Each structure stands twice: as structure tokens, then as C-alpha cells.
Amino acid sequence: MPADAADTYLRGLAETYVADPSSLRWWESLKCSAVRMPYADTDGLAKIATLVGQRTNARLIVTDDESPPWPVYSGDAQKIIAMLRECRFFEYILAAHDRSWILFDTHMNELVSAGLEVRTSVTEE
């Protein structure tokens, strides 16, 4: 996304989910309830694919434990997940285009999700 559109999207996402937007790790500063799903050395992307399901119009925010500005990419959620399989690990946020859900993949091999329905089987796989 162009920088100005990405900035607008990120401000809206922060207003929806983050208590302290100046925090480097937004997942540590959520203002809403979230589900935490450690995945240790299992396939975290498979869990993400299950959680996201057939949703489209997702946004990938590459944070990589760096201060903003963060690049934001837009596309089909499953295609973004497929692309992530081809990359080295980095911290990122996957979120809905309309900001109805957000999902963090943290440096601690843990998924943190808000706004997505999480079934017990997903958290225990």
C-alpha cells in the first residue's frame, strides 16, 4: 500500500485494538481480550490458515520488531500465508481489511488473536 494509505490503516487498527500505539509490540498492549496460542516448533502458519479460513482482503503488516513506519501489503489471506511460507521468520500482523480481526505472530512462537473465532482444536493442535 502507498505510505499514506498504510498510515491511515494502521492508525485505525491501533484505535480499534491497541491501548498504547507507541508500543513496539502491539500484541503486548492490546485493549481488548485476545486468545494466545503458543505453537512452539509446530506449524504456526497451518494454525493461521485454519483460523483465517476463507477470509479474503487481508492486510500483512511487517513489523519485524522494528519501529514504524511499517509496510502494509494487501491481498487474499491464504495467498499471503503461502507467501509467508517462502520467507524467513519475521514478526508480523495479519488483519482484516475492515479491521474486524487481527492476528499477531510473535517472536516467541505464539499467535495472539482478537476478533477471530478460535476453536479449541486450533489452540491444541
Q: How many whole angstroms does the radius of gyration measure?
A: 13 Å
Strand order of the largest sheet: 1-6-5-4-2-3
Strand content: 15-25%
Structural class: alpha+beta
Question: Can you give the mean pLDDT?
Answer: 91
* End-to-end gap: 34 Å
Shape: globular
Which H/E pattern describes the elements?
A: HEHEEHEEEH
* Percentage of residues assigned to helices: 25-40%
How many helical elements? 4
**Number of domain units:** 1
Biggest pleated-sheet summary: 6 strands, antiparallel
Strand tally is 6
Low-confidence stretches: none
Sum up the structure in keywords:
125 residues; alpha+beta; 6-stranded antiparallel beta sheet; 4 helices
What does this protein look like?
The protein has 4 helices and 6 strands, in the order αβαββαβββα. Helix content is 30%, strand content 22%. The chain has 125 residues and is α+β, with helices and mostly antiparallel strands. The chain has one domain (3-124).
Task: Give a quick precis of the structure.
With 125 residues, the protein is α+β, with helices and mostly antiparallel strands. Helices cover 30% and strands 22% of the residues. Strands 1-6-5-4-2-3 form a six-stranded antiparallel sheet.
What does the secondary structure layout of this molecule look like, with pairings?
Elements (H helix, E strand, L loop, with lengths): L2 H15 L17 E4 L5 H9 L5 E5 L9 E4 L1 H9 L6 E5 L5 E4 L4 E5 L5 H5 L1
Antiparallel strand pairs: 1-6, 2-3, 2-4, 4-5, 5-6
Helix pairs in contact: 2-3
